[in-house]
């Protein structure tokens, strides 16, 4: 297991550390419920340094990224970010990721469990006009999430970090001599910022954020609450909803799959699937009775299995069980009644539109 730079800091804060994607990561500090509520109502601090970061430059960078990702890189302006995915030739999802366009190059942020796989895939398709560098081991990522995240950063830096960043935009700035690449994408459904920086500056920034956030009741947040927060928004998790046997159309990611942008890896297979029609689809559901759905539980309709749960939990915000899973496409219409097999008993549920939680501050304007 790799140790993130702030490992000792998390131990001092009482974190319970667990293996995750090859790293020892904090799953919780106090309780998942308390940390979840802190992000929904105030502000929480996440160490996400297990994520992978690749710098991609060179004269052919845009052409290269158009080939290896499914969204339209040509639409990205300097200072913007884009949610996208990397697919194999069969249209299966190798990874979902966020792409940032900088002045002279691009930053591609990938899932921790896929760093080596993704890098090898990109190297396989690299040409002489492409500069590709894995900076994951030298980069710390700290996320500040919650309605008070902007105020906390204002308190710390006079607004130089958060500024007036719009949703899915980024900027580079300084705090006390620390160079910060700050982005506003988020994974919680609340207003928030991701701060990328050198490992050497991680301890100083973490301490400064905790001190600046004291008046806001800031809490460190682990992977446990990160999962309940993302699930309330209906965000897919690689390895659960997404994998190499699942296409973007099946996973509800048609909106980032730009089939009209020209050729890219997986396009032909996705076009064939679109023409034939998908046989299964990812859906969201809420429990209508007491019960907590979990990964791999069967999804039933009229007593017969029509799918399987990929993610499920008790929603701290909605006070009910929620989940996502794949079902036979014809049974995936919102409003459809289903049941989740929990310990051998069918517990009633209903398919709903996402997000589950629609009262967040994710797209809130900054005043």
Structure description:
Helix 2 packs across helix 7. A hairpin with a 4-residue loop joins strand 7 and strand 8. The termini are far apart. This protein is an alpha+beta fold and 367 residues long. It has a 6-stranded mixed beta sheet, with helices on both faces. It has a 6-stranded antiparallel barrel with strand order 15-18-17-16-19-20. It is globular. It is built from 8 helices and 20 strands. Among the domains are: 143 residues, 2-Layer Sandwich (Gyrase A, domain 2); 75 residues, Aminomethyltransferase beta-barrel domains (Elongation Factor Tu (Ef-tu), domain 3, Beta Barrel), CATH 2.40.30.110.
SSE arrangement:
Elements: E1 2-3, H1 7-12, E2 16-20, E3 23-28, H2 32-41, E4 44-47, E5 52-57, H3 61-68, E6 81-87, E7 93-101, E8 106-110, H4 115-125, E9 131-134, E10 139-145, H5 149-157, E11 170-175, E12 178-183, E13 192-198, H6 202-212, E14 219-221, H7 223-233, H8 267-276, E15 280-287, E16 298-301, E17 304-315, E18 320-328, E19 337-342, E20 345-352
Parallel strand pairs: 1-3, 4-14
Antiparallel strand pairs: 2-3, 4-10, 5-8, 5-9, 6-7, 7-8, 10-13, 11-12, 12-13, 15-18, 15-20, 16-17, 16-19, 17-18, 19-20
Brief descriptors of the model:
alpha+beta, six-stranded antiparallel beta barrel, Gyrase A, domain 2, 367 residues, globular, Elongation Factor Tu (Ef-tu), domain 3
Structure summarized in a few sentences:
The chain has helices at 7-12, 32-41, 61-68, 115-125, 149-157, 202-212, 223-233, 267-276, and strands at 2-3, 16-20, 23-28, 44-47, 52-57, 81-87, 93-101, 106-110, 131-134, 139-145, 170-175, 178-183, 192-198, 219-221, 280-287, 298-301, 304-315, 320-328, 337-342, 345-352. It has 367 residues and is of the alpha+beta class.
């Amino acid at each position: 297991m790799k140790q993130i730079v702030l490992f000792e800091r998390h131990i001092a804060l009482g974190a319970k550390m667990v293996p995750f994607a090859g790293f020892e990561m904090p799953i919780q500090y106090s309780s998942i419920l308390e940390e979840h509520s802190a992000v929904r109502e105030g502000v929480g601090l996440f160490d996400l340094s297990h994520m992978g970061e690749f710098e991609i430059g060179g004269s052919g960078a845009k052409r290269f990224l158009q080939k290896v990702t499914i969204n339209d890189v040509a639409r990205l302006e300097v200072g913007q970010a884009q949610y996208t995915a990397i697919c194999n030739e069969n249209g299966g999802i190798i990874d979902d990721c966020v792409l940032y366009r900088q002045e002279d190059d691009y930053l591609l942020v990938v899932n921790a469990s896929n760093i080596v796989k993704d890098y090898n895939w990109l190297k396989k398709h690299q040409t002489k006009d492409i500069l590709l560098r894995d900076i994951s081991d030298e980069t710390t990522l700290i996320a500040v999430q919650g309605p008070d995240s902007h105020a906390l950063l204002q308190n710390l830096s006079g607004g130089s970090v958060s500024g007036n960043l719009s949703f899915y935009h980024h900027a580079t700035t300084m705090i006390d001599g620390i160079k910060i690449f700050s982005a506003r994408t988020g994974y919680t459904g609340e207003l928030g910022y991701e701060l990328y920086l050198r490992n050497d500056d991680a301890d100083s920034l973490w301490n400064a954020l905790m001190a600046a956030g004291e008046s806001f009741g800031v809490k460190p947040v682990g992977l446990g609450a990160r999962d309940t927060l993302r699930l309330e928004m209906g965000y897919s998790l690689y390895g659960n909803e997404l994998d190499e046997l699942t296409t973007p159309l099946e996973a509800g990611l048609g909106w980032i799959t730009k089939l009209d942008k020209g050729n890219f890896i997986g396009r032909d297979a996705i076009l064939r699937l679109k023409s034939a029609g998908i046989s299964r689809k990812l859906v969201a559901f809420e429990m209508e009775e007491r019960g907590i759905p979990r990964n791999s539980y069967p999804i039933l309709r009229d007593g017969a299995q029509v799918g399987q749960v990929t993610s499920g939990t008790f929603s701290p915000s909605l006070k009910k069980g929620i989940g996502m899973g794949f079902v036979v496409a014809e049974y995936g219409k919102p409003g459809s009644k289903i049941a989740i097999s929990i310990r051998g008993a069918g517990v009633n549920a209903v398919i709903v539109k996402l997000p589950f939680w629609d009262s967040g501050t994710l797209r809130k304007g900054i005043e």
